[in-house]
Amino acid sequence: MRIFKNRGDIYFSKINKKKSAEQRMLIIALIVIVVFTVIFVTALAFKYDFSAKKFFAPDDLKVTQTQETEEDEPLPEVSGKSNFITLVNSDNNLLYAVLVQVDLDNISYKVGTLKAGTICDGNSLADIYKQSGAPNAKKAIETLMGTEFDYYISMDKKEFSVFFEKLGDFSYPILSEIKFKSSGLSVDYSVRLKAGEQKLNGSQVVNLIRYYLDEENNTSAANDLILNSLLQMINSDNLSKSEDLFRLLVTTADTNITVRDFSMAAEGLTVLADDRTGPGAYSAIAEYESENISKNSLQKFKGYFIK
Questions:
Q1: Is residue 36's pLDDT more than 80?
Q2: Which CATH code of 3.40.640.10, 1.25.40.10, 3.40.50.2000, 3.40.630.190 fits the domain covering 81-303?
Q3: Contacts 24+ apart (CB under 8 A), 131-140
Q4: Which of the chain's termini has less CB crowding within 10 Å, N or C?
């Protein structure tokens, strides 16, 4: 473009004119951004009372924290083995004996069952119990086994049934239908159970153990029933009410377990009842020849209860 003046010609480049327009647009855009930023920052400043601390950590900020639960807590370290004898009777007539070792070294239960008529040092266990009581029956079993048993629990069938049912539901698979009724015994009993998974009460458990031992001569089946009850019923729910259960036990049973023994067992019970533990289960099988345990069987049987 040319402009004529008095002296000479002046030229305006079209290119320079285009650049100038672009610069003006950039300047306008920059001004808009600056103004918006100032307004935004001012609004935030008013909201948080000009406090940087409130801006970065407002009062309503929700912080999610990972909290340790009981399941995350490590289990106590436990060790040792304890042997128990449970003697179930009816009107002072012994029905059977259950031997249990709680093995905290290997976190497991070992169970064996004895018929009431088992011969111990020339006398039947039932006669020893009836004439001399639970402590002497315990001594007779220790002599037979050659092993010390720490604790005994002697309960009448009715009291055992009440205590058993306080522990909650117990389910057990019955392989085939059982219809049985005894006659002529000091304490008669009957068993009527259909095949399949069954919920058993305390009385049914006692009668089924008697049936397996005395009618089928099957200590393995009796052991399996008892092992299943231990695995199901020593659980976190019962652990939470263990003091009440122990109180019921010592008021209804003849036992040498003391309050101190119960307190000392707290950590072991915690481990056994925890869902993460999964205790092992072992069956000590006694093979009978009449009312005597066979010699070969007795040696193997003893091995389960050695400390």
A1: no
A2: 3.40.630.190
A3: 133/254, 134/87, 134/254, 135/256, 137/85, 137/87, 137/94, 137/97, 138/85
A4: N
